[in-house]
Amino acid sequence: MEYKDYYKVLGLERGATQDEVKRAYRKLARKYHPDVNKEAGAEAAFKEVGEAYEVLGDAEKRAAYDQLGQNWKSGQEFRPPPGWDAGFEFSGATAEGAGAEFSDFFDALFGRMRRREGGARGRAEFHARGEDHHAKILIDLRDAFSGATRTISLRAPEIDESGELALRHRTLDVQIPKGVVEGQHLRLKGQGAPGTGRLPAGDLYLEVQFKPDPLYRVVGRDLYLDLPVAPWEAALGASVRIPTPTGPIMLKVPAGSAQGGKLRLKGRGIPAAEPGDLYAVLKIVLPPADSEKARELYQKMASDLAFDPRPQFGA
Amino acid sequence: MTQTGTPGVPSQIVDADIMCTLDELCRACNVEAGWIAELVEHGIIEPVGRAQPEWRFAMLSVVRVAKAKRLERDLALNLPGLALALDLLDEIDDLRSQLKLSRQLE
Description:
The structure holds two protein chains of two kinds. By secondary structure, chain A is α+β, with helices and mostly antiparallel strands. Chain A has eight helices and eleven strands. In chain B, 55% of the residues lie in helices and 8% in strands. Chain B is globular, with a radius of gyration of 17 Å.
């Protein structure tokens, strides 16, 4: 397992006071809280900060940790020396929640104590409905059009029969209903934490996110598709074949279309009682002047057309 | 994520118009009715119905209450602080989606 430098995680010197530890933790916890920070990796950072504070914020654990010495480097291969914690007494106050999931390094050092607490907590609860769990699910845009079954893997801390806190991994096949959009929540009855005693399990809530799609941009139920057109197609009008999530269709580009013009295909967005629309956004693509013929044609336009692309600049 | 042959666990879109009672909300979030009442008092969630016995909540409140619970627990926020944080997070979400929209329409 790898050594973890908890001081470095909190951005502190080894001699930091307990007040400094608390301040550093609070600041970083606010910064990385997964409900606040949407960046990838925020959740991992938040857990790491929580673990560091679990140790350094507790005078007893901190003293034990410091006793390992300061020659260890972050990420270095680590084995706890035998009897390393002899002479330290843990009163065992563990923060709730944030510390549900700690590293192997933490477990090797302080694991025994955590298990004791887990047991106590497990017994204290008598009959309780299982808690609801919340997670995210990443789906393809086309799943929202046709509905689909997707497998997700979930990890949740759980107290097992012997009172030990363990991470439970499980996979779940989820039916994605047709017409779901980004930001909506799916509720899966009875798929949260199991209830204790006679009471039922909690529910699982999944927040839907779409995987980035190579073709379509999604805004609510509406889709935007970049539609590259040749200058003459935009100028003279054309009928072009475009993809839609339900299959290709022919689209009429009107004569005199401008760059960035949006052509609306009503009801071709994400399905619902009031389905979204599909917008084709015109992108005029210029043919390169890379042949004699092409240069000739451009030159002919330059000499034959009285065209000023910059009238607003004046003469 | 793979397509499988099994039918899978059915899921239900939590629409804004699905409602639940105070009791159901408490059970779903594993919190006391008193705490929900405080959230209502601070405008963190808004029930339909005037007095507590008539309260009905949008099912989506479950998600908001869970978020409030996490923020309270992890950042030791008090209720006014919680209300402010949630309002500001909502505003940031709105601004982000507006920014995304205007970028997409460029």
